[in-house]
Design a protein that fits this description.
By secondary structure, the protein is α+β, with helices and mostly antiparallel strands. The protein contains 3 helices and 4 strands. It is elongated.
């Protein structure tokens, strides 16, 4: 099984109601839902999860990597924001072709806390 990975430092997506048709469209669609909490610059968390054909998360995302400097409250806020981004953006609208291609395959997405001036 392959693993699709992408680091989300900042990205934007404007897919509207158009179904996603390529792997490369999935990551910006999820990144658009990430709202970085204050005091989390330099934090990173990678979430691994799978989709079903309909664009729904299959099972629960798991953390495969984290770098969480700072206080415990900021760490919790950052991880919660990453998990919330996945929850708030799914299910994604996939074309039949993309849904068939991604169903059951693991995705790994890294959320990175960036300074405000570097965010898009």
């Amino acid at each position: 099984a392959s693993l699709f990975a992408f680091a989300l430092a900042s990205a934007s997506a404007q897919t509207g109601d158009k179904p996603l048709n390529a792997y490369a469209e999935v990551f910006p669609a999820l990144a658009a839902c990430f709202r970085q909490p204050p005091n989390t610059v330099g934090m990173e968390v990678t979430l691994v999860f799978t989709f079903n054909r309909k664009g729904e998360i299959f099972g629960k995302p798991r953390i495969s990597y984290s770098k969480l400097p700072g206080d415990a409250a900021a760490q919790r806020d950052f991880v919660a924001a990453a998990l919330r981004a996945i929850a708030d953006c799914t299910p994604l609208k996939f074309t039949d072709k993309l849904g068939g291609a991604v169903a059951g395959r693991p995705f790994a997405i890294r959320f990175i806390g960036m300074p405000a001036q570097q965010r898009i």
